[in-house]
Design a protein that fits this description.
The complex is a heterodimer of chains A (497) and B (272).
Chain A (H helix, E strand, L loop, with lengths): L3 E8 L5 H7 L7 H9 L5 E6 L3 E8 L2 H16 L3 H5 L3 E4 L1 H11 L11 H15 L5 H20 L2 H4 L3 H12 L7 E5 L3 H12 L4 E6 L2 H11 L2 E4 L3 H4 L5 E4 L10 H10 L5 E5 L16 E5 H9 L6 H24 L2 H27 L4 H28 L6 H11 L7 H13 L8 H11 L4 H17 L13 H4 L2
Parallel strand pairs in A: 5-6, 5-8, 6-7, 8-9, 9-10
Antiparallel strand pairs in A: 1-3, 1-4, 2-3
Chain B lengths: L1 H24 L3 H29 L7 H22 L3 H20 L15 H35 L12 H34 L7 H23 L4 H23 L10
The chains are: A alpha/beta (497), B mainly alpha (272).
């Protein structure tokens, strides 16, 4: 095959937080790096995943070997890190393994805390960024959408999420080793992000007496404080409130440490050295690691929490194994679809299909016409052959012309669907789709749009519908940055109605 | 008879040690319910053994080195059981039980039979002074146990790569509180023990006792714990520093207990 999917990256297992924080992409500002990614030679489609536990670049293009060689350089140059510094930490997955990796990430099987739910949301956000920047194309669209439904299926069919120990409960467990009871303790949340909010929520559920929320923008602090039933604290008044906090959850990073060692030292003095538990969820880290050396101060960063969590993993091993089986099956399904996108087998299948139709019709005509002499027979054969060849000429030329260019997959898939060549994946795709429509509210982005579009089309005549679809297809073939899932509108279940 | 009961208590303390150690390693209820029962049984057997010995001697059997060690172990178990009533801290048993086991085993080993009490010391002050002083030592032994666990737990949390074996240790705050409570009670008992000793010595010997090594060491111990209490109350000493000082104080207690008796120094030399 002359195209491939490659994933290069590092995660919490392959690289310590010191390395991860150096190559992390700023969330919400993914567009410029995504544009630079697709500008890398050989990259046809690209996406970037960057969370506190992983930084991964996913790309597909005509030459997987070249991609595997180019992506580490991209990652290094994006962050001004010398490439050799990353070499020992990077892993490269190609083709099926890349897809499997993405599925496992989405299903939270590769997470630090297996089964934690945040990763799926982060993945969706970053996929949306890739789609918006026009970096992801048909293959990655499909790949991501499959990964979302794999994640949901795993959550539905296994108990992996129930068994999961989140960062929050790891923090709770540790605070129980430090504090006698939580009811008379107060927690300070620095940075009102999702992760911090979830952790604070968990601490509250475990009975922490009160929570203070500080955020750089005070309005956001007020909002989060309201949902938590907490007290908002102005950012510039932190030194006054810090001594009151028995637990500090830092979930915002900046150019430098949010709380330098001196600030903690002063707060400890003021609180007469009562124990303080600092939880640093941010990458890059928000709190000076040297703070842990202070007496009665206990600092855990995100890697340390992993250590706590690893111990609780044994019980989930069986559920994880079940989830891996699901991933295997889903990778197979995806891969059948993906390989069917190849031009050569499609041409072969197309010829076979049409030839079978021609044969069938010739036999029927021969039976109806009665006895024919060999010359007449010959003429009939030649006539039908000629029609078939002329009809097939344009599609086959188009397929050959777009071989190994970005539109290849689109043409192949269109041909397969128009001629009902079957891909092994289409049938399951439609099944899966109707299942998804049933739970539409949490469906992937674009779902509702498609639903209403389809409903609107129902009244239209068949021909008009086909014409419209062809128009749309042609548009999206010319412009690879069309809206996600464009192609799924060519779904067989539409044609079969 | 008395020796048999003592040995039964030794065995029960050993069983208690095992139960407590299992209790910190796994989250299971069995050691938690078993430990207090073993120790109550041990306490009763041990108490009967000492009572029997006192009956034969005609005075409270706390005047020889082995009797002193044995009595300290008995009171340590008693203090632990009382604390246990208020709050189950099985993990504390992991230090208390081996201590009691070691003390009783040593008492059994150095046993050399009864010894007549000098008539000058045969007064009501004997049980008062001895019970107060030994009870104080027992309370400080409990503080030592809590401090030791504190240091282990603190190291575990500071290292941030927690070994699974020590997951069920009590929280730092709990251990620090036990330490604080023991410090206050121990100091009260130690002070009363010293005062009763002074009064008793004055009535028995007049002024000829103030340079007794045991008295000097007791003053040192008292000084350490007073400084620690003062630091806790005013300067916010707590945690590791407090635990370390508590352990240092207990080390001096052990020194005065063993050293004075083994070297037979001063008036306490033949016993406490």
């Amino acid at each position: 095959m002359e195209r491939g999917i490659v994933l290069v990256g590092l995660n919490h297992r392959s690289a310590p937080v010191e390395v991860r924080e150096r190559v992390a992409f700023a969330n919400g500002r993914l567009e410029p790096p995504l544009r630079r990614l697709v500008a890398v030679a050989g990259v046809a489609e690209g996406a970037i995943l960057s969370t506190c536990n992983r930084v991964e670049v996913l790309a597909c293009g005509p030459d997987p070997t070249a991609l595997g060689a180019a992506l580490p350089g991209f990652l290094a140059s994006e962050h001004g890190v010398p490439e050799p510094a990353l070499a020992g930490h990077l892993y490269t997955h190609t083709d099926r393994e890349a897809v499997r990796h993405l599925f496992r990430v989405a299903a939270s099987l590769d997470s630090m805390v297996v089964g934690e739910p945040q990763i799926l949301g982060q993945l969706k956000e970053q996929y949306a960024a890739a789609a918006a920047a026009g970096a992801s194309g048909q293959i990655l669209h499909r790949c991501f959408h499959r990964s979302f439904s794999v994640a949901k299926r795993i959550r539905r069919e296994t108990r992996i999420a129930e068994r999961a120990v989140s960062i929050g409960s790891a923090a709770v467990e540790l605070s129980r080793s430090i504090f006698d009871r939580l009811a008379d303790k107060s927690a300070l949340l620095l940075g009102a992000g999702t992760m911090g909010e979830l952790t604070a929520r968990q601490l509250l559920a475990q009975g922490v007496g009160s929570v203070m929320v500080a955020n750089r923008t005070f309005d956001r602090a007020i909002d989060v404080a309201r949902t938590l039933g907490a007290m908002p604290v102005p950012w510039d008044r932190l030194p006054r409130y810090l001594p009151l906090a028995d637990l500090v959850i830092a979930a915002a990073s900046g150019e430098e440490f949010l709380l330098p060692r001196a600030a903690i030292e002063e707060a400890m003095h003021e609180r007469r050295h009562r124990a303080m538990f600092l939880i640093d969820l941010a990458v890059p880290r928000a709190l000076d690691p040297a703070v842990n050396q202070l007496d009665n101060v206990y600092l855990y960063d995100i890697d340390d929490l992993e250590g706590v969590v690893t111990q609780n993993r044994g019980a989930r091993a069986r559920e994880a194994a079940k989830a891996e089986t699901i991933v295997d099956a889903e990778v197979d399904t995806f891969w059948r679809w993906y390989t069917s996108l190849d031009v050569v087998p499609t041409i072969v299948a197309l010829r076979e299909r049409v030839e079978a139709i021609r044969r069938y019709e010739v036999e029927r005509s021969l039976a109806a016409l009665g006895a024919l002499d060999p010359r007449q027979r010959e003429a009939l054969e030649r006539l039908t052959q000629a029609i078939v060849n002329k009809v097939l000429h344009a599609p086959l030329t188009a397929l050959r012309r777009h071989r190994a260019d970005p539109a290849e997959a689109f043409y192949v898939e269109a041909a397969r669907r128009l001629f009902r060549l079957g891909t092994g994946a289409t049938g399951e795709a439609s099944e899966e789709r109707s299942a998804r429509s049933a739970r539409a509210p949490d469906g992937p982005p674009g779902e509702a749009e498609r639903e209403s579009a389809r409903a609107g089309r129902r009244g239209l005549g068949r021909a008009a519908e086909d014409a419209r679809e062809l128009g749309r297809s042609a548009r999206s073939a010319r412009a690879p940055d069309g809206p996600p899932d464009e192609l799924e509108d060519l779904d067989p279940d539409d044609e079969d109605t | 008879m008395e020796l048999g009961l003592l040995r039964l208590a030794i065995a029960l303390y050993l069983a208690g040690t095992v139960a407590a150690l299992v209790g910190i390693a796994v989250r299971q209820d069995l050691p938690r319910t078993l430990l207090p029962r073993l120790l109550w049984a041990g306490f009763v057997a041990h108490g009967l053994s000492i009572a029997g010995r006192s009956w034969t001697a005609g005075h409270m059997a706390v005047t020889t080195f082995d009797e002193a060690l044995s009595f300290l172990a008995l009171l340590l178990i008693a203090v632990f059981l009382v604390v246990q009533l208020r709050r189950p801290l099985v993990a504390l048993g992991a230090v208390v039980c081996p201590l009691a086991f070691g003390l009783t085993l040593a008492a059994d080993a150095v046993y050399r039979g009864a010894r007549p009490l000098p008539p000058v010391l045969d007064s009501a002050w004997l049980p008062i002074h001895v019970v107060l002083s030994v009870l104080g030592d027992a309370v400080f032994a409990l503080a030592f146990s809590a401090s030791l666990l504190y240091l282990v737990q603190e190291r575990r949390l500071k290292a941030r790569r927690a070994p699974a074996a020590l997951r069920y240790l009590p929280s730092l705050e709990t251990l620090d509180r036990v330490n604080y409570g023991c410090l206050v009670w121990g100091l009260v008992l130690l002070t009363l023990g010293m005062v009763s000793g002074i009064v008793w010595a004055h009535t028995a010997w007049g002024r000829d006792w103030s340079s007794d090594p045991k008295v000097v060491l007791s003053l040192v111990i008292w000084g350490i714990y007073v400084v620690l209490l003062q630091g806790r109350m005013t300067a916010g000493w707590r945690g590791r520093w407090a635990a370390t000082l508590t352990i240092a104080g207990f080390a001096v207690i052990v020194l005065s207990l063993v050293g004075v008796n083994v070297l037979e120094l001063g008036k306490h030399g033949k016993a406490f």
